[in-house]
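[audit] Reproducing an earlier prediction to check determinism. Same input, same settings, fresh worker. If the tokens differ from the archived copy the diff job will pick it up downstream; this log only records the rerun itself.
[audit] input (271 residues):
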Amino acid sequence: MVGFKLAENKPCSGDIIRIDSKDTEQYFLLSLNTANLRFSYKGPYGEGGFNIDPPTGQTFCENKHTFALSRRGKKLNYTVDGGSRPKRDENRLDGLFSKMDKITIGRKGDKGFKGCITGVKVTRALYGGKPNTVEPIKAFVYDGKTDGFTASDVTENSKEKCGPEPEVPPIPTPRPVGGPVSPATGSPTTKDPEKQAEEDNQTAIIVVVVLILVLLLVVLAIVIYWYWARHKGEYHTHEDDEELKGADPFIDLTTPKTHGEETEKKKEWYI
């Protein structure tokens, strides 16, 4: 990730490299604070950080040093001068880090590291795509490229003062945790955390939409049942309305029919 060496008679402190996100205020920051390196960050769940001790019997204020770090979700691996350190879990980093927008190497003013910063490599690995590596110091100072770079306090003889770019040690890849077993290697496999988070968000949206549709169907069924039950067997009658009886003709089934003459009873004759 970065190589650095403090200049003579300069304070053993200052920001070495900072990476800012594009759409949020998230960042990664490596700084030197006398005896220790400090890795600070602002992740999806807030700010955090931890101190990094120099190799045994050494100090970061002398000689040339290298630091490399890899992140996959909340899991961090890092090396100091090529020596691997224990893996760390930083829960505040367990989420999406927006697309990288700006890399600041050192800093103009009192907070900046006073010395040589070389060997800067920043790699962003996209799920399903090739890793994209940026080497700003090599491009600007050693290769003379200026497009996309803004520099201050960088002299023409930086290469002579700082010497060749130090080789940044390879970064150990964090081991996958859980997940299905790969049939090819027999080892567990995991998806890229950014891709996994995106899929989780899509799944959550689908679940919410399905729940809303089910709720609407239940409400519709309740309304239909209520309407059907309320109007089942409904009819209107005027049997008990005395006013309508006096105004409208009706048939009284209890009164026998008459036609003005009494009907003669039928007689039966037996011969």
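[audit] rerun output stored. Observation attached for the diff report: The radius of gyration is 42 Å.
[audit] end
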